[in-house]
Inverse folding.
């Protein structure tokens, strides 16, 4: 009976995969890809970034989630981190780009921005909120 209980979650996953048209191999690959992505959450509240220091790793897929819990707009303005780096920006924020690439994203109250990228250069990079009167600062360390 114990062996059957261990097998039951895998059996349920296989049944679900068949029901939605996936094969077990496809779902295993998708799960492995999700696990290999580094997820980092930064919350904006009380005119602060939390956490104020983020550690990332070179060459590792990263999913940076920025969530605004304040009643006002905030911006995420990274300094030099994304120069020459390919990235994907999602969520309900308003991203801005210039000649060098990604410049910033403005995030509404209750909103979020999702940035997916692979850090390529080790170093320390500052980020700020550049809304008038906001003194929000943080650091991203890429090791």
């Amino acid at each position: 009976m114990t062996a059957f209980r261990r097998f039951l979650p895998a059996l349920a996953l296989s049944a679900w995969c068949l029901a939605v048209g996936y094969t077990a191999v496809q779902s295993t690959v998708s799960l492995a890809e999700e696990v290999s992505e580094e997820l980092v959450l930064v919350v904006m509240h009380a005119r602060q970034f939390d956490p104020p220091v983020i550690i990332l790793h070179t060459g590792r897929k990263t999913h940076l989630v920025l969530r605004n819990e304040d009643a006002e707009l905030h911006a995420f303005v990274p300094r030099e981190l994304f120069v020459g780096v390919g990235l994907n920006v999602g969520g309900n924020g308003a991203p801005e780009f210039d000649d060098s690439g990604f410049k910033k994203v403005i995030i509404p109250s209750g909103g979020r921005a999702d940035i997916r990228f692979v850090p390529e250069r080790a170093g320390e990079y500052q980020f700020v909120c550049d809304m008038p009167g906001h003194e929000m600062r943080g650091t991203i360390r890429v090791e």
In short: The mean pLDDT is 83. The helical segments are 2-20, 24-36. The longest strand covers residues 38-45.
